[in-house]
Amino acid sequence: MDTIFAFGDSYSATGYDPKNGIDNIPGLGGTTSGGYNWLQFLASTDPTQPIDLYNFAYAGAVINNTAVFGSDVIVDAPDFVQQVASFQQFFAIPGGSAVQSGQTKWKTSRALFAIWFGINDVGLETLLLEDPVEKIPQIFGTMSVLVHDLHSGGARHFLFLTVPPTQRAPAIADLPAANVSQYESTLGLFNEALTAFTATVPLAYPDSEVTVIDTQPIFNDILDSPATSGFADSRTFCPSYATISTNPNIFLPQCGWPLAEYVWYDGTHPSWRVHEILAGKVAQS
Predict the structure, then answer these.
(1) Which of 87, 120, 171, 204 is the most exposed place for a label (fewest CB within 10 A)?
(2) Is the pTM here over 0.85, yes or no?
(3) In the chain, pLDDT over 70 holds for what percent of residues?
(4) What keywords does the record list, in alphabetical order (predicted)?
């Protein structure tokens, strides 16, 4: 693969916006990891074979704003619907403006479409006391339409990631037990629906390939045995690090150990080292 198109939320966002220039690719500073995130690591796995990363992911994004918030609520974060619309505007084959102008010449056989949603969908359904049994089918109805739209625009290689065990993130783990239990239950239902949905994609589009990365065992291995992966702390985060985005190797004495030895960058987001490990697992798949 020499091109990645990515869609998702803050676990994937890098600050890219094609309106600011097709090739204006952000470096450090646009993630929620304190350094690079998994997509940036994945795109640079082999320095001799650079990969173009066009990343539409946005912090706070869900799959379908209307399904989660209702039609009367204005949401700033572009959902998967809007992210796909942006892809269609600029990159879809043959009608995307960047394709027509020659600014990009990506090939369907060489492009990976990475899709990682659900963290905010699960969290907001729990926070808003919505019934996941009702909402999740609506959300995946939208997902089906959007995968069709991506396929129509040239997508042939799909990568989906499940929701990690974010109930173990400090900010969520500290909630009342009943809230954590509800969150974990909704998360499980979402991942079950995602797994079922991804199985239908190659049946609907026989010319396509689908890879699913289950992030649950990857994250749980790190959280259960942090020292094995080089971490000193898997339960808390240091607030002094949570405002730093361009110095991944920083060590502040008041934090006890370097940012790189914390599993959590802040209350809900993993540090860049977790992203690096995740990218390695994805690259091996």
Answers:
(1) 204
(2) yes
(3) 98
(4) Hydrolase
